[in-house]
Amino acid sequence: MKILMNPGLTGVVAAETKLSLVDGENGHLVYRGHWAKELAVHYSFEEIAYLLWYGQLPNEISLKVFNEELKENRYLPDFLMDIIDRLPVEMDMMSVLRTAISALGSSTFDWQPTVNQATKLTAITPTIISYRYRKMKGLDFIQPSQHLDHAANYLYMLTGIIPNEAHTRALTAYMILTMEHGMNASTFTARVISSTQSDMTSAISGAIGSMKGPLHGGAPTEVVQLLNEIGTKENAESYLRNKLENKELIMGFGHRVYKTKDPRAEALRTVTSQLAGSDTWLDLAYHVENTAIKLLEEYKPGRKLYTNVEFYAAAVLRAVGMPAELFTPTFTVSRIVGWTAHVIEQGENNKIFRPESAYVGSMPE
Ligand code: ACO
């Protein structure tokens, strides 16, 4: 068999999946036969998690049962609160999350991966984040609500305020659009770990570690930093040009797969424009988008660099009041659905991943 080398595995198909189609040429994103951008505006987080895990949208009764299962699993066990409390104060949230998920790794999560395991990890993730976040701010922990859905409960546990409908809807749209995205770095990590028949918590801890990097999930925080540094519309062109002259990346632009507009960025752009009280910051974001696309075409002609999901994720998350330090953890709150769905799918037809490496070192004398 001829072995090809492909750095970054670009263009290599590593698995078959029924979960999503990411069509980078045409800018399409499909979840199990449905357009993701339509699911994002018409359905709840719970309905789309159900769709990805079970393969179909729930009926009224199955949704009710499923909602209850998620709500029951929102609570933090005492031992986990204790572990989180003992972590160094300077530890960033993604590292806290990785450690907390790992600490949950009892035999309950052993191979073979199940929807029940996926439900438990998905349900508890927002509580881990809000518990730690409030503790670090010197605020009392807010127990999960039994009356709010997943997205609204997350905002409620962070702020202590029941969010309005517009904010819940915007966060839900963001969460649905970022729930699943084919064989990205963190999903691949989860599948590789699971392919050894390791447990679900190991696969998800590894995926969190992969998501943490700035080239993957860390970008939206840097988008806010970019926009804050630019400050005004007048400043945008010279600031961005300077970055490109210095061969620096502009965060929130470019994508390994999409060589046209990222459909998730497009959908989130619509969501931001519908949010009440659109502010000057959003105005600046639209201006920076247009300027950066123009300059990227000038400095990187033909590379087709457009806004990626992270750019408008930053705008939506900021608009719903999410602190910038929680952007990547919030991405985890949604992407954990895709990771666990892939781990389950991997388990249905497992083959351990074992690519080759090409030796380029010296040989013994
Ligand atoms: N700013 C400036 N130049 C860029 C950018 C950017 N944001 N993105 C790509 N380029 C350049 C590359 O340097 C490269 O230049 P070259 O051909 O002269 O060497 C060219 O455009 C082609 O890009 P690739 O390197 O082929 O892009 P790749 O597929 O390897 O990387 C990536 C994709 C990592 C997302 C890259 O575009 C990037 O670093 N963007 C900024 C970080 C970011 O926004 N990450 C979030 C991605 S979305 C997500 O993870 C959910």
UniProtKB/TrEMBL annotation:
Record organism: Robertmurraya mangrovi
Designated name of the protein: Citrate synthase
CDD domains assigned: BsCS-I_like
SUPFAM superfamilies reported in the protein's UniProt record: Citrate synthase (SSF48256)
Record keywords, A-Z: Transferase
UniProt similarity note: Belongs to the citrate synthase family.
Pathway recorded for this protein: Carbohydrate metabolism; tricarboxylic acid cycle
Domain of life: Bacteria
Annotated catalysed reactions: oxaloacetate + acetyl-CoA + H2O = citrate + CoA + H(+)
